[in-house]
């Protein structure tokens, strides 16, 4: 049987969901026998590849780079998973939304809150442009499965990956259907 082509993607999140993935500990060795990780922040891959079977997508869509990556991965992936509460609802990343649109938030932080040389960072091609509102992943591209938790515990991640490796649609038991 061909190995599963697995990607993990880091959008607007704190990387805690990826830390929880690493908490799979010794099961990662079993996983390596069943899946090839073809794209991930924990490896040196610059370009999202074609024909990915499963993508675990951490973080909300907060800027133009996140949005571009969301569309790119959706086009090249069979099964897209919103990985963690920020991807599922916006969660921590979306806490800026009630403060106003992007420019208002940037002004408040970098101009009103700045001390020496207040200035909004704006290096083209280096600093991504904030979206006016942070969005959960499913509001940008279709998502196949929501994996909640902040972060999702390793046991919940394993449950979902095991189902996919066995060709089953993952179903979370009631105790795993919760945020936080
Ligand atoms: Fe971090 Fe929690 Fe968001 Fe995951 S869901 S990126 S752990 S804040």
Molecular structure report:
By secondary structure, this protein is an alpha/beta fold. Helices cover 31% and strands 21% of the residues. The protein is built from 6 helices and 7 strands. The strands form 2 sheets. A 5-stranded parallel sheet has the order 2-1-3-5-7. It is elongated, with a radius of gyration of 17 Å. The termini are far apart.
Keywords:
6 helices, binds iron/sulfur cluster, five-stranded parallel β-sheet, 180 residues, 7 strands, two-stranded antiparallel ribbon, alpha/beta
Describe the global form.
elongated
Note poorly predicted spans.
Answer: none
As a percent range, the share of strand residues is: 15-25%
Give the distinct bound molecules. Answer: iron/sulfur cluster
Radius of gyration: 17 Å
| SS content category | alpha/beta
Give the strand order of the largest sheet, numbering strands 1, 2, ... along the chain. 2-1-3-5-7
Tally of DSSP helical segments: 6
Largest sheet: 5 strands, parallel
Separation of termini?
36 Å
SSE order, as H and E?
Answer: EHHEEEHEHHEEH
Q: What is the percent of helical residues?
A: 25-40%
Give me the count of strands.
7
| Mean pLDDT metric | 96
Write the layout of secondary structure elements.
Layout: E1 4-10, H1 16-22, H2 27-34, E2 35-39, E3 52-58, E4 61-63, H3 64-76, E5 77-83, H4 85-89, H5 102-112, E6 130-135, E7 145-147, H6 154-165
Parallel strand pairs: 1-2, 1-3, 3-5, 5-7
Antiparallel strand pairs: 4-6
The structure holds iron/sulfur cluster.
Residues 13-14, 16-17, 58-59, 84-86, 91-92, 150-151 line the site of iron/sulfur cluster (SF4).
């Amino acid at each position: 049987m061909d190995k599963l082509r697995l990607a993990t993607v880091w959008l607007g999140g704190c990387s805690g969901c990826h830390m929880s993935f690493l908490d799979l500990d010794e099961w990662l060795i079993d996983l390596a026998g069943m899946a090839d990780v073809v794209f991930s922040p924990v490896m040196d891959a610059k370009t999202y590849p074609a024909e990915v079977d499963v993508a675990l997508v951490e973080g909300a869509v907060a800027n133009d780079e996140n949005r571009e990556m969301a569309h790119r991965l959706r086009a090249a992936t069979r099964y897209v998973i919103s990985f963690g509460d920020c991807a599922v609802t916006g969660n921590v990343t979306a806490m800026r939304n009630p403060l106003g649109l992007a420019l208002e938030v940037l002004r408040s932080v970098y101009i009103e809150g700045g001390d020496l040389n207040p200035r909004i960072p704006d290096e083209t091609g280096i600093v991504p442009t904030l979206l006016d509102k942070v969005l959960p992943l499913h509001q940008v591209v279709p998502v196949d499965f929501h994996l909640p938790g902040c972060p999702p515990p390793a046991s919940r991640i394993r449950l979902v990956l095991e189902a996919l490796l066995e060709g089953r649609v993952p179903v979370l038991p009631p105790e795993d259907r919760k945020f936080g």
